[in-house]
Specification:
single chain, Jelly Rolls, five-stranded antiparallel beta sheet, 9 strands, about 40% strand
């Protein structure tokens, strides 16, 4: 749950939003709802939303950590969730996306109770694959994704629009 997420921040297919350095400790508590507005050239996609605590570049390493764990700039995963887009309206009745049509995708993450320390940054990552943790989505709607054929796996351009919001505890909005 707390693995370093810097590898994903460097990927060209991951949207990464970074706050300014915090001037005071900030505790976030409560429910989290990611309200994305998306479009795509395909007819299905997965959406991964992550909330990350980024440590300052000059943060000292911990003696108890293995030598390869560098804490300066560490991006600690705090909360994450994956939503298979076909289930955005209902888990009982999956529906395809209309290509190039802006669509709401609301993703409820696990509740949070986390304090981001002074000097840290809040990072939000949004991406559409988390392979090998989550199986690949073909980006094309098929009735049963586990029976998708090789030709069902297509390239799709996915856009996340600027009026998307992450609501935390009902009163903190990250845009």
């Amino acid at each position: 749950m707390s693995d370093d997420q810097r590898h994903a921040s460097r990927r060209p297919d991951v949207l990464t939003f970074v706050s300014d350095e915090l001037t005071d400790d900030l505790t976030l508590a409560g429910e989290i709802m990611a309200k994305l507005k998306v479009s795509m050239t395909g007819t299905d996609a997965d959406f991964v939303v992550k909330i990350i605590d980024e440590y300052p570049e000059d943060h000292p390493d911990y003696d108890h950590n293995p030598a390869n764990i560098v804490m300066g700039g560490y991006q600690q995963l705090v909360r994450s969730e994956v939503m298979r887009g076909r289930f955005r309206e209902s888990f009982e009745k999956p529906v395809p996306f209309e290509p190039n049509e802006i669509t709401d995708v609301n993703i409820r993450l696990q509740d949070i109770l986390h304090t981001f320390k002074k000097g840290h940054r809040i990072v939000i990552q949004v991406h559409s694959t988390w392979f090998p943790y989550i199986d690949r989505n073909p980006q094309k709607y098929v009735d049963n994704i586990f029976e998708a054929n090789e030709e069902d796996f297509i390239k799709s351009t996915i856009r996340v629009y600027g009026n998307s919001v992450i609501e935390i505890g009902g009163n903190v909005n990250l845009k």
